[in-house]
Every structure is written in structure tokens, then in C-alpha cells.
Amino acid sequence: EAGVTQFPSHSVIEKGQTVTLRCDPISGHDNLYWYRRVMGKEIKFLLHFVKESKQDESGMPNNRFLAERTGGTYSTLKVQPAELEDSGVYFCASKAGLSSGANVLTFGAGSRLTVL
Amino acid sequence: GQSLEQPSEVTAVEGAIVQINCTYQTSGFYGLSWYQQHDGGAPTFLSYNALDGLEETGRFSSFLSRSDSYGYLLLQELQMKDSASYFCAVSRASGGSYIPTFGRGTSLIVHP
Predict the structure, then answer these.
(1) What's the confidence (pLDDT) of residue A110?
(2) d(Cα B112, Cα B109) in Å, to the nearest integer?
């Protein structure tokens, strides 16, 4: 089966611009997670979708970040307007149902965002 | 809240055994898991412990002591390809599902 796909792999934008990151989870996976890693720090949770519903968005840093998952398939994460501290690698991960294992997520390779 | 502590870097030689420790604080425990990430790649699942004891998967083993809020990942017969970052994670419950919280990762450098 195809893995989790993220696009773009790398984006360089200027402060104040907008960027939209896309994640295609494994087909049929209801659970979709967004994480971010700033260099040298932890992989930090941003939010969790179950199908098209936001189950937990407690990790979203502020209202400049907007995540959507229309139709419960792919997801987008928009940063508008981008700030310097938004630089980092944004990871998407997916998981099937609740019975598939509490901690086993399949990650994408990440989208590296550089804000200048 | 949740927090995890693991060493920032560990070095070892090819063929050796290395242990990466992880201590955690969490309200509600739903297992300790380990992920491996090579530079520029996706974190990939290695191992999961829900109960105390040792879980073995090939050259990798993971141990958990819930009373000590402590676990470790043991890598045996180290190979150059094992050079990567290793993350421990504990999960919290959220609306019928689980959210893994990750540590800062341990960079393992394997020398010839």
C-alpha cells in the first residue's frame, strides 16, 4: 500500500506570506495527525482528525494556523501569515481505527518550511 | 501534561550494544513507544510497551518499568545504518483515541 505522502517536501517563503501544506494519508485511515519539529526540539503535536472532524487541536500554536480535512481524505495545513518561528518540519501521520494499536502511527517524510 | 527526557546524543561502534533511556511524566499512561528517524526521512515505528518487561524484535528490544516511569531501547549488533534519531513517546487519551507525545530524540552515531 502507498504510504503517507506530504507535499511540498520543502518550502521557502518570506515572513508574512502564506503557505499550504498537504498530507495524503494511507487510504482508509480515519485518524490523521499533524506534528511539527523545530530543529533540536521534540516532535510536537499540533492536531488530530478523526475522518473530517477535528478531534483534538490543543497543540495548534495560534490562529495563524488552519487545518482542514474535507471529506475525510487528504488534509491541508495553512499558515497565514507566516512568521519566522514557524520554520520547522511539519509531519503528518495516519492510523487506521482504534483497534490498530494505541501508538503505531505511520508518518510521512515531512514538509520542511523555511520562513525568511 | 506530559514530558519525556532522553539523552541528546549517544555514540557507539559497529557491532556493539547501546541502550537509549527514556524517563517520562504523564497523567494517564497508555504505553511507551519508540520511533526511528533517519535524516530527512519519516519517523518509523520500532516498538511498543504497554506492560512492564522486555519486548524483543530482532536486534532491537524495548523495556518498560511503569513504577519507575522509565523505559529504554536496546540496540544490539549495531550497524552503520542504525545511525539515526530515536524518539520515545507516551500516549494520552483524547476523545476515544490516543495522542502520542514525543521526546526530543536521541541522535545515535555509529562509528566503524
Answers:
(1) 96
(2) 10
